[in-house]
């Protein structure tokens, strides 16, 4: 699930939710909602996440 992948990527890079939010120009609460699976990033944010972490869309959407 994308929520798990975002947590994984963020933690692998040693980033806080606050730092990821800042880099995406979003609130920390938005990142928290993504990571909890309450909501999902829109396509624009998905593109930014893909580029930021140099991963594929397939990786982001992978089911764990």
What does this protein look like?
It is built from five helices and no strands. With 64 residues, it is an all-alpha fold. Helix 2 crosses helix 3 (28-36). It is globular, with a radius of gyration of 10 Å.
Q: Care to give the gist of this entry?
A:
This protein is mostly helical. The chain is built from five helices and no strands. α2 (17-24) crosses α3 (28-36).
Helix/strand layout:
Layout: H1 2-12, H2 17-24, H3 28-36, H4 43-53, H5 57-61
Helix pairs in contact: 2-3
Which residue ranges are poorly predicted, with pLDDT under 50 across at least 5 consecutive positions? Answer: none
Query: How would you describe the shape?
Result: globular
Gyration radius, rounded: 10 Å
Mean pLDDT: 95
End-to-end Cα distance, whole Å, is 6 Å
- Please report which band the strand proportion falls in: under 5%, 5-15%, 15-25%, 25-35%, 35-45% or over 45%: under 5%
Helix content: 55-70%
Sheet/helix structural class: mainly alpha
Tell how many strands the DSSP assignment holds.
0
Discrete helix count: 5
For the largest beta-sheet, the strand count, sense and barrel status come to: none
One letter per element, helices H and strands E, the order comes to HHHHH
């Amino acid at each position: 699930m994308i929520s798990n992948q975002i947590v994984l990527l963020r933690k692998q890079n040693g980033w806080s939710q606050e730092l990821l939010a800042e880099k995406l120009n979003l609130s920390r609460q938005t990142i928290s909602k993504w990571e909890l699976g309450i909501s999902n990033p829109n396509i624009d944010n998905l593109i930014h996440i893909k580029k930021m972490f140099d991963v594929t869309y397939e990786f982001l959407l992978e089911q764990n």
